[in-house]
Design goal:
The chain is of the alpha/beta class. It has two domains: 248 residues, Glycogen Phosphorylase B (Rossmann fold), CATH 3.40.50; 178 residues, 3-Layer(aba) Sandwich (Rossmann fold), CATH 3.40.50. Helix content is 41%, strand content 14%. The longest helix is centred in the first third of the chain and has 26 residues.
Length: 437
Amino acid sequence: MGQLRILVLGPDCNPEGVSIPFVTYEHAAALAKLHQVTLVAKSSVEGVLKRADSPFRSIEIVRTPKLDRAYDAGFRRIFKSNFDSQAVTAFSYPFAVGFEWYAWRQFRGRILAGEYDVVLRLIPMSPVLPSPFAFFLRNGPIPFVLGPLNGGLPWPPGFGQLKNQREWVAGLRNVYRVMPFARSTYRFATAIIAASSQTYSEFAKYHDKLFFIPEPGIGHSVCADDARIHEPGDKLQLIFVGGLVPRKGCDLALRGAVSVLRNGSAHFTVVGDGPERRRLEELTQSLGIQDAVTFCGWLSHREVLEMLRTADVFVFPSLRDNGAGVVFEALATGAVPVVIDFGGPGDIVLPEVGFKVALTNESEIVSQIEKSLLSLESDCNLLNRMRQAGMKYARECLTWDAKAARTAQVLNWAVRRGPKPKMPPPKILKSGDCKLT
């Protein structure tokens, strides 16, 4: 089977960025090791893309100076450069559509001339931002593939940690369905790739062309081939990595670890910082575990990986997380994850590599975390077995190369060069389980 000529729409792909820009760049670069990839990007990332030692066939820049100036001005003045605001997604709608309109004008002739086999849109990742390309290519000559898409995770009720982080715009999410290009995007796409069970369930009516591939990935250099063994009597090393904001649930992690911390059989390291730090430090004092907990603040990525490689258990009860690449890193470095069975972490952690706690209520979550930690503290064989299984799972299934190989299977099917791959999500949500709010 020959190489595909893939036109990848990745306007914000950035090898020096974080979050989605970095994730999508690594995905595109891994795909370029397998096929001939032309990456289409904005002028704002032209410099960093051309500095990178990338394997792309070519990097093409779509210049939209007026759109860029309008977006930058609005982002600064309205949102005060706050990427965490959910309203930024709604604000981005006309700019995302505008970029693809200009990209179509720039590449239309080359597409019609047969220069490419398939178009893959990696960014935007949000399902609420449609793609005009699907409409433009509705009659060919090449297929259009969308994703991985992620987002739309509901806000679980009954948690004080989420009360002040849910914005009013979340209630308007379904308005996107009536916006221009929204219906045609999914109707005319040859394949749709979902990055979570939640997103998969949202587009279940397109099941005949719907596939599941997780959002993040890891480099082979992150994967450990570690033979370290936890012996009876060794202190259990617990770790939390993430922003100290309410929805990350660090308070739940600390409360769930009280038993093993008070009896001296464990130590808890908290890596990260944020507005909740002082309250969390006060919580450790009120629980009488302050001497068994270390707050490290922010560390470099290299330092975080070093900390994970010395940890036994990664306690990460985030209440709302779409992707959670740090869970991938924990598995790869040998830290057994304890996560809530919701969103990205719930999709990634399998029973043989970690513990998933049901999303019920605070007291039950704390109780289930405690039960998981006591199991690992009392059974060295269980901890060692899960650690080795997690590292193997990460090496074989969670790398960028593995992700690119799965994407290539979808693309080959889309261009009719290969069989339809079987890629369902790890759990199938029923319509009542995934109500969007």
